[in-house]
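Quick note —
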Amino acid sequence: MSRVENITRALKALNTNTPDVEAAAVIDNDGLLIASAMPADIDDDSVAAMSAALLGLSERITSELERGEFELVMLRGADGYSVLVRCGPEAVLTVLAAKRAKLGLIFLDIMRSSKEIARLLG
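Predicted structure written out below.
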């Protein structure tokens, strides 16, 4: 099985096994999609581009404000959450979660998945 297939399998497992996770994708630092488990109504390329932009801004903020190395950023909208977390030095995991999501469980499962994806990315 290829690296991308293994990452896609990990993303689908996150979507399936974690309540209220609606979608997930792995994006490289340049905004290119590596793998995704997104519904058909979400444009993967747009998610990748926006994730890279948010990652860049988040890393600059943590650096400029001397908060250490970037780890995670979360956005809350009226209908749910977007969470970005590092999965190795070259990629970020983007997860969309429902409004009713239990954030502690979401963060725990996202961190586990990000470590697994970082391992797969090598």
